[in-house]
Amino acid sequence: MPRTTTVDCPGCPPLRALTFDALGLIKVIEARAKGGGVPKVVERWGDPDASKCLVAASLNDRKIDPLLAVARKNGVIDILNPLNGELSLSVSDVSNAGVRPEDNAIVGLHLFRRQRSELTSRSCTLLACTTKGNASIKTVDMVDTKVDSGAPKAWNVCALGNISFSEVDGSESYAFFGGKGVEVNMWDLENCTKLWTAKPPPQNSLGIFTPTWFTSATFLSKDDHRKVVAGTNNHQVRLYDVSAQRRPVISFDFRETPIKAIAEDLDGHTIYIGNGSGDLASVDIRTGKLLGCFLGKCSGSIRSIARHPELPVIASCGLDSYLRIWDIETRQLLSSVFLKQHLMKVVFDTNFNEEEVKHDVANMAAHDALSIDEVQSADETENPPTKRKKKSSKEDREGKKKKKSSKEKDGTKKSKSKKRSKKQEHDDDA
């Protein structure tokens, strides 16, 4: 049985998160101040289908016209509206060149925030990478899909092995790839050229060489593409500095199971790591010092960690089907939601607060307008004359029963009086 710890959940601040699971469902979880900070599932998008399992997702969090891109197991990339889940466009065979999607699934997806093409303001640009290392950048028109946006940029990021992830930096100019049998490497997205490749660590004192197997990675800072943190299948965390050397600057072990998820903090030196046995911890990557583990162990492998860009919270999800919200300062569990399916990824919607305010203001305005109209209509109209209401059928039946019973009583009284009078006459005659 998995080890679990029971802790009190005080609730979390107002936020909105989107989760993606193994049946292709997207669930929207919201926590509002009015509800006491308890997150709840408010919407569910899609139909359960294992062939549409969500393997990658990217949220474009721009203030105007935000978009959500999700890659499915069958090789289709859907472009959705993150506010209502409406499907805007489906793109198929972006990176697969005549290969079945099941054999070459998409493992990395990025939806660019800035326009990389002057085609139209309603176009979006996608970076997709498959297991076999087929990477491509394609621009699609959201209005007219028949418009030719030009041939996509396509290249291969590995000769052998399988890619496990891809990450794009904050400037959206560089991408980072790595996987099983593939050393982490960095590419210039503008020219599709390789800039740097890591060098495997040397053999240990026993002459044992550990095979390369990277499982997750992140840029240490969105503003600096030179420092990258990567996790391996042999429970190692490595910090690479592209401008310094090819081997890791810092490398340390974390517990005894593979590292499955890594997320960076806003301070530029703290990272959050989750492994296959459900351990979640924060580490100061400058020294490799463990700052502490989060209270309340997860009962399954952690597959995704997301840092909220404004609030001091992180979200984690994984194979135990729970979405958990944590306080990064106290490392305490704030709240958890059971979502039934294995969860693959979680992202925060940063536009939630503004939408909530607009929604509340619109509701208040509509309520005020409605009350004013009701007052005006009440003043302008006269009170109609009161009319007697007709008795209902039930009342009629009860009235008839009462009349019948009174008649029966009167009849019995009359019969009794007649008998008495007859008896008196008989006595007189006697």
TrEMBL record:
PANTHER family: NOP SEVEN ASSOCIATED PROTEIN 1 (PTHR16038), WD REPEAT-CONTAINING PROTEIN 74 (PTHR16038:SF4). This is WD repeat-containing protein 74. Residues 372-430 are annotated as: Disordered. Keywords: Repeat, WD repeat. SUPFAM superfamilies: Quinoprotein alcohol dehydrogenase-like. It comes from the Eukaryota. GO terms for cellular component: nucleolus; preribosome, large subunit precursor. WD repeats lie at residues 295-336. Gene3D superfamilies: YVTN repeat-like/Quinoprotein amine dehydrogenase. GO terms for biological process: ribosomal large subunit biogenesis. Residues 414-423 have a biased composition (Basic residues).
